[in-house]
Specification:
The complex is a heterodimer of chains A (280) and B (420).
Chain A: H1 6-34, H2 54-60, H3 65-99, H4 105-117, H5 120-134, H6 140-165, H7 169-176, H8 181-210, H9 213-217, H10 227-230, H11 244-264, H12 266-274
Helix pairs in contact in A: 1-11, 2-11, 3-6, 3-8, 4-6, 6-8, 7-8, 8-12
Chain B: E1 4-12, E2 18-27, E3 32-36, H1 43-51, E4 58-63, E5 66-67, E6 78-81, H2 93-103, H3 110-123, H4 139-151, E7 157-161, H5 169-186, E8 189-194, H6 197-203, E9 206-211, E10 214-219, H7 221-226, H8 231-236, E11 243-250, E12 253-255, E13 260-262, H9 265-271, E14 276-281, E15 286-288, H10 294-297, E16 301-306, E17 309-312, E18 317-322, H11 327-339, E19 348-353, E20 364-369, E21 375-377, H12 389-419
Parallel strand pairs in B: 3-8, 3-9, 6-7, 7-8
Antiparallel strand pairs in B: 1-2, 1-4, 4-5, 9-10, 11-12, 11-14, 12-13, 14-21, 15-20, 16-20, 17-18, 18-19
Helix pairs in contact in B: 2-3, 2-4, 3-4
The chains are: A mainly alpha (280), B alpha+beta (420).
Chain lengths: 280, 420
């Protein structure tokens, strides 16, 4: 790689800083707000005057506990189940698309693409009516199904692209080397396919985790309401107090798993996303 | 180690395409056999049927004394080197080579595996790369790792599927010698698929020439070169390829586009009542008449030719002489050219001259050839009318004797090294 001139370096540094501030300022602002006392929210300072964990106490043990904790449980449960189902189904579908020739292959891919660009808002009202009449309204299943419609198309596309890059001849090589068909798949193909499947799982999880529209429309109680929807129902201690602090605290709490996952699996995600472009 | 016997092997694909049309071939224990032919001749399919990656439509395949038609690849105990190496990208070189050993659960201890892998790595000079991943290796190194994976276990036979086609010319030459050396030393039965006739000629104890799924001829490289059974084999083996000229028979004389040749009695009986034949002359059977020894001049046919282009390659001088072909054989020669992956270019004679020759572009040169070297082919069937079965057999027997002698020498040397 060629070395950059000093001017280019400076320019890059400036651009990086601008982008970072632009991207991270809201996050830092929420983090700062989450440590403010409810009474000091309107002081107009960026950082809290007195650092406090009141807001966190409120959502975990205080008045907002009954709203936040079930929502957290719902979010984790629903997102994990939706991700697991999506990845398993998408793996099978993508395997078939990448390796087999069958009629309607193009149709499946086009449909998947169509579904993924279909605006969520336009389906949500009919779905609300349908769900109510068949008893899926305000249940976990009632959210998992629409989440699958969000996560499956992108999972199928990502995995199909990934599977096409796998040198399937390895499977034959392994069989000649003395492996059973199952061993060949497990020892030669799975290790290569794993990063792709893993990346897809992470992407699917984030999509389900971040959803708001379905979460707020298809639930009514803490039986199934996920965190993004629950935040809208936070109230202050009295009607004269704003719940901003508690909402910020909850927002920080739900951001943490995402950040941790990305930091932990940064390398796999990057290699998973770029593997297709680089031939071995 | 084992012999491989193919009997009337047929492969018909699901779409009805007949890729291999009844091939029978006996591969002796320890023999190095090459399957060669232009693209689409069924050589790779045949190899994949031997290793078990393709089903055999009909026929019988034996490895040793066992019919293996319906056995899974793993039960055939063959080692294969793939065209694109098929290394496991997530494993180190060491683990790649150890892979077949690790699959035989519990048969080898970790120490045994390490010892075997290290011995294979030493043979292939891979010791320094054992902890690297395949992605970080050069083409030649990857090739050697693939070979290491094949030699590390005691396979019944080695199968190579165009192993050198992804390497550049220099490396290809080196690896070719390396494969020959390895096979001589290990004495393992080897089947090697290639479309490159240099590899076929240099590596094989015997070479099987395939065309459109049919076996044309199986013989030693020299046998194929000097006694090809038909036009196809004659045209395929040899570089630059054999020149084919139309020959019109007029009593005791044959008119070639370049000269008239008086036919010998033997040749006349072989040609029989045919009016037109195809005559094959290899480039090196021509010589610059100016440099020809007096003793040879008497029997040679000399002719004047307009040289179009010359190529001086240091060790050789090639001269190209265009000629008009007759339509009687034009179709046949065109078909042959297509079969050989040719481009249907102009009809020209290629002659290999001594580098001392002063013939240059645009010259009118006096050239000579020895009429006894001529091969004569039937224009319809392509059959070689000058084929001499006795000579062909003698060449192959000689070749076999030479091979056995060289194998014995290698073993003796190895014994000596062990004792010393």
């Amino acid at each position: 790689m060629r070395t950059l001139s000093t001017r280019a370096k400076v320019a890059w540094a400036v651009i990086t800083v601008v982008v970072m501030v632009w991207a991270l300022l809201p996050v830092v602002s929420i983090l700062a707000t989450s440590f403010k006392l409810p009474s000091q929210l309107n002081l107009g300072t960026f950082w809290p005057k007195t650092w406090t964990t009141t807001n966190y106490e409120q959502i975990f043990t205080g008045s907002a506990k009954d709203l936040f904790l079930p929502a957290l449980r719902n979010s984790i449960g629903i997102s994990l189940i939706a991700t697991a189902i999506a990845v398993v189904l998408a793996t099978f579908a993508a395997y078939a698309i990448a390796r087999l020739n069958f009629r309607g292959k193009k149709l499946i891919l086009t449909t998947a693409l169509g579904v993924s660009i279909f605006p969520v808002v336009s389906i949500v009202t009919p779905l609300f009516n349908l769900w109510r009449s068949i008893g899926l309204y305000d249940t976990w299943l009632g959210l998992i199904i629409p989440y699958l419609s969000l996560t499956l198309p992108i999972s199928i596309w990502t995995l199909a692209a990934f599977f096409r890059q796998i040198p399937w001849e390895l499977e034959q090589a392994a069989q000649v080397d003395g492996a059973t068909p199952w061993q060949a798949f497990r020892k030669a193909i799975v290790p290569i396919a794993a990063p792709g499947v893993f990346t897809t799982a992470l992407i699917a999880f984030f999509i389900a985790w971040n959803d708001f529209v379905y979460g707020i429309s298809l639930t009514s109680t803490s039986a199934a309401r996920p965190v993004p929807a629950a935040l809208a129902f936070f109230t202050g201690a009295s009607q004269f107090e704003e719940p901003t602090g508690a909402i910020s605290a909850a927002a920080v709490v739900v951001t943490i798993p995402v950040v941790i996952l990305v930091l932990l699996f940064q390398r796999q995600i990057v290699s998973g996303l770029t593997q297709g472009a680089v031939k071995g | 180690m084992a012999a491989i016997t193919l009997k009337d092997i047929v492969k018909r694909y699901g779409d009805g395409f007949l890729a291999v049309k009844g091939v029978s071939l006996d591969i002796a224990d320890g023999e190095f056999v090459i399957l060669v032919g232009p693209s689409g001749c069924g050589k790779s399919t045949l190899l994949r049927m031997i290793v078990g990656l393709e089903d055999i439509t009909s026929g019988e395949l034996r490895i040793g004394d066992v019919v293996v038609n319906d056995k899974a690849p793993r039960d055939r105990h063959l080692a294969m080197v793939f065209q694109n190496y098929a290394l496991y990208p997530h494993l180190t070189v060491f683990e790649n080579i150890a892979f077949p050993l690790r699959l035989t659960k519990g048969k080898f201890t970790d120490d045994e595996i390490r010892e075997k892998v290290e011995r294979a790595a030493a043979t292939l000079e891979l010791q320094d790369h054992l902890q690297r991943k395949p992605a970080n290796l050069s083409g030649g190194q990857r090739q050697r790792v693939a070979m290491g994976r094949a030699i590390v276990r005691d396979a019944n036979a080695f199968l190579f599927d165009e192993p050198l086609s992804n390497l550049d010319a220099k490396l290809r030459g080196q690896m070719r010698t390396e494969i020959a050396r390895m096979q001589r030393r290990l004495g393992t039965t080897t089947v090697y698929v290639t479309h490159d006739q240099t590899e076929a000629m240099t590596l094989g104890d015997r070479v099987a020439v395939l065309r459109k799924g049919e076996l044309q001829q199986v013989a030693s490289p020299r046998g194929l070169y000097e006694q090809p059974v038909n036009l196809f084999v004659a045209g395929f083996i040899g570089s630059p390829p054999m020149n084919f000229l139309p020959g019109e028979i007029d009593g005791g004389t044959m008119h070639l586009p370049i000269a008239d040749v008086t036919l010998s009695a033997d040749l006349r009986t072989r040609i029989g009542s045919r009016r037109v034949v195809i005559v094959g002359l290899r480039p090196e059977h021509f010589a610059d008449a100016a440099l020809l020894e007096e003793s040879k001049k008497a029997s040679a046919v000399t002719f004047d030719a307009d040289v179009d282009v010359t190529e001086w390659l240091g060790s050789d001088l090639y001269a190209y002489i265009p000629f008009e072909t007759s339509h009687a054989v034009a179709d046949k020669l065109e078909e042959l050219d297509r079969d050989l992956d040719g481009e249907g270019m102009r009809t020209q004679l290629v002659v290999a001259l001594d580098t001392e020759s002063r013939v240059r572009d645009g010259d009118t040169a006096t050239l000579a050839f020895d009429p006894t070297k001529m091969m004569v082919f039937d224009p319809e069937t392509g059959e070689n009318l000058t084929f001499d079965a006795d000579t062909a057999r003698a060449i192959d027997e000689q070749n076999e004797a030479d091979r056995k002698a060289s194998l014995a020498r290698v073993h003796q040397r190895d014994e000596g090294r062990k004792a010393g």
